[in-house]
Specification:
By secondary structure, this protein is an alpha+beta fold. 21% of the residues lie in helices and 34% in strands. It has three helices and 17 strands. Helix 1 packs across helix 2. The longest helix has 26 residues, at 5-30. Its EC number is 3.4.21.89. It holds the Pfam family Peptidase_S26. It catalyses: Cleavage of hydrophobic, N-terminal signal or leader sequences from secreted and periplasmic proteins. InterPro entries: LexA/Signal_pep-like_sf (IPR036286), Pept_S26A_signal_pept_1 (IPR000223), Pept_S26A_signal_pept_1_CS (IPR019758), Pept_S26A_signal_pept_1_Lys-AS (IPR019757), Pept_S26A_signal_pept_1_Ser-AS (IPR019756), Peptidase_S26 (IPR019533). It is a multi-pass membrane protein.
Length: 258
């Protein structure tokens, strides 16, 4: 069980709902008619907050949840300060707090940008790109990917010019990677050491990497992501605010992620 914001939303919904519903039942048992002006103060608060917290709980648990990008690990796709929306039903419907899947829907595809609970500390949310699917053989050598023996094509786009809090990424090589049909940008810091090796993705798990390949704590270092740790699929940037440097990034608002 996760004692996160969803837990407190569930508790708030239950408490306000019980107070409000209980008050109505008491009135009914007494044969009295509901009158807002005669509500006790605590019932008035419950009456006001119950529909609000219920709607927020339903939207956040089953439709979409907002997240803020705190690090440079997904640059250049996602910048520090981007605010994204995550589709909560893309990979099935899960009950809040206990995270039990009750409705099976789609499975992650290679190239999806996913938010998940970090396997080493499930209280922390991570965001990475799905590279390897269950059963895949992923190899990473000389800053190049091979999936099931097939080299992944990369095309250089020149040197990257960082902005805002990601300005220190300036000079990294900017490449367009074709992840078996999903084209996306990545950054490589030539000369920097990075984890290399061959990884077999176990059943029910996913191999994930950041687009900023030499500045990402991902599956190369701590292993794969179990399916039950998936939170949802990132699909939209609804706000971008780098408060330390450039302010609001109006050019990024409305970006559809791929």
């Amino acid at each position: 069980m996760d004692y996160d914001f969803s837990f407190f939303l569930v508790v708030a919904t239950l408490v306000t709902g019980i107070i409000w519903g209980g008050y109505l039942l008491v009135l009914k048992s007494r044969g009295e008619v509901f009158d807002e002006e005669k509500e006790p103060w605590f019932v008035e608060y419950a009456h006001s907050f119950f529909p609000v917290v219920l709607i927020v709980l339903l939207l956040r648990s089953f439709i979409a949840e907002p997240f803020r990008i705190p690090s440079a690990s997904m640059m250049p796709t996602l910048l520090i300060g981007d605010f994204i929306l995550v589709n909560k039903f893309a990979y099935g419907i899960r009950l809040p707090v206990i995270n039990k899947k009750v409705i099976e829907l789609n499975e992650p595809k290679r190239g999806d940008i996913v938010v998940f609970r970090y396997p080493k500390d499930p209280a922390v949310d991570y965001i990475k790109r799905v590279i390897g699917l269950p059963g895949d053989r992923v190899a990473y050598y000389d800053k190049k990917l091979h999936i099931n023996g097939v080299p992944i094509n990369q095309v250089s786009l020149g040197r990257y010019q960082g902005v805002g809090q990601g300005e220190d990424m300036t000079g990294n090589e900017h490449l367009l990677e074709d992840l078996t049909g999903v084209e996306h940008s990545i950054l490589i810091r030539n000369g920097a050491a990075s984890a290399e090796g061959v990884y077999i993705v176990p059943k029910g798990s996913y191999f994930v990497m950041g687009d900023n390949r030499d500045n990402s704590n991902d599956s190369r270092y701590w292993g794969t992501v179990p399916e039950e740790n998936l939170v949802g699929k990132a699909f939209f940037i609804w706000m971008s605010w780098d408060w330390q440097h450039k302010g609001v990034g109006f050019d990024r608002i409305g970006t559809v992620l791929k």
